[in-house]
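Q: Could you fold this chain for me?
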Amino acid sequence: MRHITLTCEDHPNLRWGCKEVAVGPTGRFTGGRTLFFHGDPDQPHYDSPWPNVDECPCDVRKLIALNVWQESQGGAEDVS
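A: Sure. Below is the predicted structure, expressed as structure tokens.
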């Protein structure tokens, strides 16, 4: 099963990951699986057990697959 990288609509510098089964057809996180916080790819300790940034306080309904968010912004940037 593939893993999907998610970002927050309000905090696009942050990254989470989950299995693809937890992402619905619109690219939104459904809550169907465990969510893993990876941090900010531009900060030290990205994707480590101890990210150097805190998770945002947003509701998980704000999480969207990174590629879907990038397309909504007019194109792909970094696919971290």
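A (continued): The radius of gyration is 12 Å.
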